[in-house]
Amino acid sequence: MKVAVAIAVVAACVAASLSASITHAPDFAAVGAKVEVVRDIIGEAFNKIKDIANNDNAAVGSDISSQLDAAAVKANAVLERINAAIGAGNLTAGQAQDLFTELTDILTGVFKDLSK
User: Fold this and answer.
1) CA distance linking residue 13 with residue 5, whole number of Å
2) pLDDT tens digits for 48-78?
3) Which secondary-structure segment (H or E) carries 62?
4) Which keywords describe this protein according to UniProt (predicted)?
5) Strand ranges in the chain using DSSP code E only, listed in sequence order
């Protein structure tokens, strides 16, 4: 249960950091900074959740760690696509919003999987 709550908190933090809709040409530096903040939130939170899960039950913790590692790979792939578009100077507002939505969906999926 602690893990499900922790995932919900992570999803809420990421959603809060992305809550302002991108409705104009993005400020590449600001979006890039947000990408790094989101990466830090996910990394730190996933590590803390792994610690909680492993302390509660090592066998279950191992399974949860595997699920979080897989989600982290997916999340980092999305963040790298954002960074690539920023680097190329062609990130549109629509692309940015779609990629941040995809990231939120990944976190929501982890929450649903771990809440079962």
Assistant:
1) 12
2) 888 988 898 888 889 889 999 999 999 999 9
3) helix 58-88
4) Signal
5) none
Backbone angles phi, psi at 107, to 5 degrees: -65, -40
How far does the chain reach from its first CA to its final CA, in angstroms? 10
- pTM to 2 decimal places: 0.74
Task: Assess contact for 35 and 75: CB atoms under 8 A.
Answer: no
Neighbour tally for 46: CB within 10 Å? 23
State the CB neighbour count (10 A cutoff) for residue 80: 12
Residue 16 in tokens: 């809060």
Any residues with CB less than 8 A from the CB of 108 and at least 6 apart, and which?
A: 11
